[in-house]
Design a protein that fits this description.
By secondary structure, the protein is an alpha/beta fold. It is built from 16 helices and eight strands. 49% of the residues lie in helices and 11% in strands. The longest helix is centred in the middle third of the chain and has 21 residues, at 221-241.
Length: 408
């Protein structure tokens, strides 16, 4: 789903604390019906749910940290609830509460509460810490902060999870010296069981129409996909810079991302920043979005700001195209890598989340990582984040073998 802008000031949405609606969804498998309709998911499983059940039985405060590769991830968390018996709360971007009346009604009743991605949200942080410190339910946080569409790779975590975990652990330790806060990483693995060639060419035909191009004469699927990637980037270069750039796709991609970020940082922050793409975009948004929602820009200026936000969204989307992901000489190219790349292009071009049948999701609950209430030294890597990242990335690498390798 493309960037959602809500043209009104942020207002915190708290979770509903009842369990009836979560119970109903899981008991009647309403989430499975919904995900088949919206995402083409037809098979579901969750492994090692007993690990989460044991942590809950021990009375630990619990945080769940899944990788975030599909729009369907939050709803698919119902499989974790079914496997473990542990109902959950979850932090969700405030913008998601404005995608429709049904979603806005359902999310709080399924344990969701809002967080403002465009500023410091004290209410959301306090609510998250309370959820964990009081061990009322496990708390789900997607630490990558946005949908990556990269099932094999983990991207840098946003700030916040370490603070929430340690603050909750510190409060738990005051309440009871033997109490613990633990983090269970969750590994999501999506698999496609259909005909990848037929499905891919059908979607690429649609994307060609949107791009006013014809790549159907390409001899190979991977070759055609690469050309559509180049055409998509060319279209976005023309919008952002007035013309297409030269060079191979990944060189152009890097220049596009760097130029968009540098241009916006100069305009809104006064100087070019350092860091990964997502953290740099996150740092800019509080200087752009609140003023836009308050109506502080005039006509031409508002148009410029909205175009900057669109360019930033596109830069973020292109940053999720790993360089060697579809190179059979340098990596194992699976049918799922091909499909998720097409999903990314579809989202960039049309802004839609396409439902492709014959998909399966498997969720693996990883071992608990105990949280120390002690803050790491200033400027030093966070050992909690390092451990969670390493454990989750290792499991994602192992689960690659579940995906079929693409044979041209």
């Amino acid at each position: 789903m493309n960037e959602i802008l809500v043209d009104k000031p942020y207002d915190f949405v708290p979770p509903k604390h009842g369990k009836f609606w979560i119970w109903l969804v899981c008991t009647l498998n309403i989430h499975r019906w919904w995900l088949k309709k919206t995402d083409g998911l037809e098979q579901f499983s969750c492994t090692n749910g007993d690990r989460l059940r044991e942590s809950a039985k021990a009375g630990h405060g619990i945080i769940l940290t899944p990788n975030h590769c599909r729009l369907s991830d939050p709803m698919a968390m119902a499989e974790v609830v079914k496997a473990s018996g542990a109902y959950t709360y979850s932090m969700a971007s405030w913008r998601l509460f404005h995608t429709g009346k049904l979603v806005a009604w359902c999310m709080p009743r399924l344990g969701g509460f809002s967080v403002n991605r465009d500023g410091v949200d004290r209410k959301a942080l306090d609510t998250a810490i309370d959820c964990v410190a009081n061990t009322s339910r496990p708390l789900t946080i997607f630490p990558e902060g946005s949908i990556t569409r990269c099932n094999d790779l983990l991207f840098p975590f946003l700030d916040g999870i370490g603070f929430i975990a340690r603050s909750a652990a510190k409060r738990r330790a005051k309440q009871s010296p033997t109490s613990k806060v633990v983090v269970h990483p969750l590994a999501f693995r999506y698999r496609f069981h259909g005909d990848i060639d037929e499905t891919s060419h059908e979607i690429l035909d649609d994307l060609d129409s949107c791009l006013n191009a014809d790549t159907s004469s390409q001899n190979s699927l991977l070759g055609r996909l690469h050309t559509v990637c180049e055409n998509t980037l060319g279209m976005k270069e023309s919008i952002a810079f007035g013309s297409e750039r030269s060079g191979n796709f990944y060189e152009r991609r890097d220049r596009f991302v760097n130029e968009v970020l540098a241009d916006c940082e100069q305009r809104y922050l006064g100087e070019i920043q350092k860091g990964d793409v997502i953290s740099r975009i996150k740092a800019m948004r509080p200087h752009i979005v609140p003023a836009l929602t308050r109506g502080e820009y005039d006509g031409e200026q508002e148009e410029r700001v909205r175009q900057d936000l669109n360019n930033l969204f596109t830069a973020q989307a292109f940053s999720y195209f790993p360089t060697e992901y579809l190179d059979p000489d340098k990596s194992r190219v699976s049918v799922d890598r091909i499909l998720e790349t097409i999903y990314k292009l579809d989202e960039i071009i049309t802004g839609e989340n396409r439902a492709v049948p014959s998909n399966e999701v498997t969720i693996d609950v990883l071992n608990a990582v105990e949280v120390s209430p002690e803050r790491p030294p200033r400027g030093a890597p966070d050992p909690l984040i390092e451990t969670i990242t390493e454990n989750l990335q290792t499991r994602l690498f192992e689960m690659q073998e579940l995906s079929r390798e693409y044979k041209a």
